[in-house]
Specification:
The complex is a heterodimer of chains A (245) and B (219). In chain A, the strands form 2 sheets. In chain A, strands 6-7-8-3-9-10 form a 6-stranded mixed beta sheet, with helices on both faces. A 4-stranded antiparallel beta sheet of chain A has the order 2-1-4-5, with helices on one face. Chain A is an alpha/beta fold and 245 residues long. In chain A, helix 3 crosses helix 4 and helix 4 crosses helix 5. Chain B is mainly α and 219 residues long. In chain B, 84% of the residues lie in helices and 0% in strands. Chain B has 9 helices and no strands. Classes of the chains: A alpha/beta (245), B mainly alpha (219). Chains A and B meet through helix 2, strand 6, helix 3 and helix 5 of A and helix 6 and helix 7 of B.
């Protein structure tokens, strides 16, 4: 049993009108754990991820980050979000700012860092994702893979405790998927707590500590990669894996 | 009628200093209308985009009211009604600025709303996910991108406002059109004062469109 989970989700429900997208989702995520969420389109996995930083709000249930409920009136939602970096399928870089400014903005505006502090950190992160030469480029001049690596650096600049990845490679040309997954793999090895929604089964298997299979708004099965991929317990997991593997 | 041989430049010469005073007031009224109208328009746009009915409905009503009635009528109501009531006397320049600003706000509100809503939702989500407040996301991320897209529409609106400011001649605000009509009446002449006024308005609106083209390129 987890001792002191960094994220604890208890029975969350979410519906868009009559369309139920999340039903009774519960999971505890440990520090430094990499949890990969897989499942067919429309299974609710992105919605689940977006609930973790309240970009979507569940109608019932509870989410606790380091023991603090997101629905407590005293909880400042901005502070929670600052601790949970998010990487989007469509990058969402700020097109009117340079790569460097994209990374520096939130540390300065949210954390109150000086321009020098923010710039030093941003350059260090750009080196880490292998894009030092793009510091002064505008996002429109970057390839998809480069954009996503900048987006990862931008999220890391806030020094978050958790990183949330929402299908980070789904909008990329196949030859660029590898460079983004490599950065994510390195992050995992450095001990970052990560929740990753993806269709990259190779990545899930290699980097994930636990795999969550979702379908129709429910968690069908949770297991370690070897167990879930090689000996799935549920028929629906088997049926899904037979289609994607 | 032979236009050129009849053209009496002395009328323009006699009235030149008044034309210039009028032109300066026209510019001042336009700038005041643009600035106040844009600020009010921005506030109305936010109210209009709100999900709260008590912000959405009044601003929606405001936009319908000021776009759906003639500006000339609004000028008369503001001058003889609103300003006279509030100040206890009539003041044509105050009334002109208020009427132009109120009217322009309805149009700029729609420009702001369309511009803000044209920015992808992902931009706001990315800003929020980094810990920014909604206000910070709007100020640092959405508005700078939206305003760039709004510039052509604003250019259009500002040109309309410069031209529409001529309507305040009716309440005797001594701007360009006021002195033009005055010269026309005094000399019983049409072509000289009106064509001269047309030329001045053309210079003003052309300068405005060039200025906004320049700003658009710079952004």
């Amino acid at each position: 049993m987890p001792m002191n989970p960094i994220i604890s989700v208890q029975g969350i429900h979410k519906a868009f009108g009559k369309n139920v997208v999340l039903q009774d989702i519960s999971i505890e995520i440990e520090k430094q754990e990499v949890v990969v969420v897989i499942g067919p389109s429309g299974s609710g996995k992105s919605t689940f991820l977006r609930c973790l930083n309240l970009l979507e709000s569940p109608e019932s249930g509870d989410i606790r980050i380091e023991g603090q409920s997101l629905f407590d009136k005293k909880t400042k939602i901005e502070e929670i979000r600052a601790e949970a970096g998010m990487v989007f399928q469509s990058f969402n870089l700020f097109p009117h700012k340079t790569v460097l400014e994209n990374i520096m903005l939130a540390p300065m505006k949210v954390r109150g860092q000086t321009a020098e502090q923010a710039k030093a950190k941003a350059l260090e992160l750009l080196a880490k994702v292998g894009l030092s030469d793009k510091a002064d480029a505008k996002p429109s001049s970057l390839s998809g893979g480069q954009s996503q690596r900048v987006a990862i650096a931008r999220a890391l600049a806030m020094e978050p405790k958790v990183m949330l990845f929402d299908e980070p490679t789904s909008a990329l040309d196949p030859e660029m998927v590898g460079e983004v997954l490599a950065v994510m793999k390195q992050l995992a090895q450095e001990g970052m707590t990560m929740v990753v929604v993806t269709h990259e089964m190779g990545f899930a298997r290699e980097v994930g500590d636990r795999i969550v299979f979702m379908e129709q708004g429910k968690i069908v099965e949770i297991g370690e990669p070897k167990q879930l991929f090689e000996a799935p317990q549920h028929e629906r997991t088997k049926a899904f894996l037979s289609k994607v593997l | 009628m032979c236009l050129v041989s009849d053209f009496n430049f002395h009328i323009i010469e006699d009235y030149f200093s008044l034309f210039m005073e009028g032109t300066i007031l026209t510019i001042e009224l336009s700038i005041a209308g643009i600035i106040l109208g844009s600020l009010l328009g921005l506030a109305i746009a936010f109210g209009n985009m709100s999900r709260r009915w008590y912000l959405h409905l009044p601003t929606q009503g405001y936009i319908h009211l000021f776009r759906g009635t003639p500006l000339l009528l609004q000028i008369l109501i503001v001058h003889f009604g609103l300003v006279a009531q509030v100040l206890g006397r009539t003041d044509a320049i105050v009334a002109a600025i208020v009427a132009l600003a109120l009217n322009s706000a309805a149009y700029t509100a729609e420009i702001f709303r369309a511009g803000i809503q044209s920015i992808d939702k992902g931009q706001t989500e990315a800003a929020l996910s980094l810990g920014m407040t909604r206000g910070q996301a709007m100020r640092h991320i959405v508005l700078p991108q939206a305003i760039k897209r709004m510039i052509p529409a604003f250019g259009n609106e500002f040109i309309v406002l410069i031209k529409d400011s001529s309507l305040v001649a009716i309440i005797t605000a001594p701007e360009l059109m006021y002195w033009t009509r005055s010269a026309a009446a005094q000399y019983s002449k049409v072509w000289e004062p009106y064509l001269f006024a047309a030329l001045v308005y053309l210079v003003l609106t052309y300068s405005m469109s060039k200025l906004l083209k320049f700003v658009e390129r710079k952004m």
